[in-house]
Amino acid sequence: MSDQPNKNKNIPTGIHLLQNPVWNKGTGFSKEEREQLNIRGLLPPRIFSESEQALRIIENFRKKTTDLEKYIYLISLQDRNETLFYRILIDNIDEMMPIVYTPTVGEACQKFDHIFRRPRGLYISTEDRGSMKKILQNWPEEKVGMVVVTDGERILGLGDQGTNGMGIPIGKLTLYTACAGVSPHLCLPIMLDVGTNNEELLKNPLYLGEFHHRLYGEEYDDFIEEFVQAVQEVYPEAIIQFEDFSNRNAFRLLEKYRDKVCCFNDDIQGTASVALSGIFTSLRITKSKLKDQKILFFGAGEAGLGIGSLVVNALVKEGVPIDEARKISWYVDSRGLVVKDRKNVTKHKKPFAHEHPFSETLLEAIHDIKPTILIGASGQAQTFTQDVIETMSVYNERPVIFALSNPTSKSECTAEQAYQWSNGNAIFASGSPFDSVTLNGKTFVPGQGNNAYVFPGIGLGAIVSETRRITDEMFIEAALTLSKYVTEEDLAKGRVYPALDRIRDVSAYIAEAVARVAYASDLTEQEKPRDLLKVIKSHIYEPNYYSYI
Fold first, then answer.
1. Which domains are seen in the chain, by residue range?
2. Does 101 qualify as catalytic in the annotation?
3. Which has the least CB within 10 A, 35, 98, 123, 404?
4. Catalytic residue among 70, 71, 86, 101
5. Residues 379/405, Cβ–Cβ less than 8 Å
6. Active site residue: 172, 257, 419, 545, which one?
7. Selection from 429, 164, 155 nearest residue 302 by Cα
8. What is the secondary structure of 230-272 as a DSSP string?
9. 172 has catalytic annotation
C-alpha cells in the first residue's frame, strides 16, 4: 500500500495538475517542480510549506459561523488538495471530526442536494442494472481495499435520505484515512440509488437521485446481488462495509453475505464493538464482571441488537453457556419490554425475549429489571428523563448510562443531564460529542462512543492481513484492545474511551489484533509476519508532500 499516488503513473502537468486533488500541492510546489511540470506562473511566486498552508486553512475554518459552512469548506479543500486536507484533519482531529462526520454530516446529508459541488465516489442506480461491473471499472484506481456502501434508507437517526445519504460513505472513508491511515487511494464510497420514499425529496427539483419509490422484495435483492458480485469481480480484495441500511435489510444482508464475501455492517457490528469496549472500561470503574451485569437496551434495532449479540459472543468466549449469556440483555422497544409471551416479537429479538412480566414503559422496566447498565439506541431524543436517571442511581452506586443515538438532536440525554441527575455518579458515554461538565467542583469529560474508534482499525487490519472474512471475534478483540488503551487518567475524568488525539495509535493496535485473529483462524493465505505491528505501521498513510521530480 502506498502513502502517495503511484509514482509510476503519468503525473499531470500544467493547469491539469493544479486541478487534480490527488497530486495538487497548491503553493507547496518547489521552484524546480513549477518549472518542470509547466506550472510556473500559474501560482503566486511564494512557496509555502505544508504547515504554513495549514495556518491559512485553519484560520479561515475557524471564521466560519456555522458547522455546515465548516463542513463545506473542508470538503472543498479535500476536492482540491487531498494531502493538505488529511494533514489538517489528522492534526486537528478533536476539533474537526465532529464536522466531517457526526453530528454535522447529518445536516450535510439533509442538504446534500443543495450543497453538492463535485462528485466523489460512484452512484449506481436502478437504471444501471446489468451494467454494474462496467460502472465499477470506471473508477480510476486499479486497486480498492475498502468499499463503504449505502442505499440511504436509514441515515443516522434521520431516516430515508435517498442519494443525499452519499455524505455518509464519503465521511466514513475520510475517517478510515484520518483515524487509521488507510490510504485514500484504496477507498471507494458508493451510493446505491434504489429510489426513496421521502416524499419531500421526490418533490425537490434539486434532488440528485431517481424520482421513484424504493425497490423492495426480489427486485431489491437481485440489485444487491449484482452489486456484490460486481465488486468481487472488479475489486476482489475489497472489503464491503454496509452502512445505514434499514432494519428490514441490514440484518438479512449481513446474514446472507458475511460467510460468502469479506464484509461487515458497521451499524450492527461496529457499534456493538465500540459499545462493548465502553462496557469493558466501565467494569474497570465498578470493579465488576460482565457476566454479573444486567443490561437494559432502549431500542431494539440494528445498534441495540448488534450490541446484545456481541455481548453474548464475548460471554461465550469467557465460557458462559449461550442461554445464560443471553439472559443478561433486556430490551425495551416501541411496544414496551420484549418478553416471551408478547405478540409480534421479530426474529432478531426472540433470543432476548425472556420469561418475565411485561412492562409498558422504560421506567417500569428499570424498576422491574434493576439494570446495572442502560444503553440508548433508539433515535428518540430526551427519553432518558430525570426519573430514568434518578431511578438508575437508586439501584446502582455508579450507574452506567450510554446515550448512543446520533446525531446530537437524537441523543437520549445530554452529558450534563446524566451527571446532574445522578449527582455526578453516572458513567456516561454518548454517540455524539458533548462538552465537559463541571459539577460539585469536579470536571467530567464525557466519552464519545464513536464507531470511528473501531471500524478504521478493523479495516486496516483486514486490508493488511488480506483476510477472507470479518468475524465477530475480530470485533470482540477490537473492543478489548480499545478498552485496554483507556488510561487511569482518562478514567479519572470520566472517559471510557481514549482521547481522540491518540486514535491513530489505538487504531494501529486494533489493526494488529484483527490481523492476529485472521492468521490464527486461517482466514488468509499470508504467512504471519514476525513483527506484525511493524508491518501494520508500515502501511499507514501519512499525508506529507514529497517531490514529483
1. 97-261 (3.40.50.10380), 269-452 (3.40.50.720), 455-462+469-486+496-538 (no CATH)
2. yes
3. 35
4. 101
5. yes
6. 172
7. 155
8. HHHHH-TTPEEEE-S--HHHHHHHHHHHTTTSSEEEIIIIIHH
9. yes
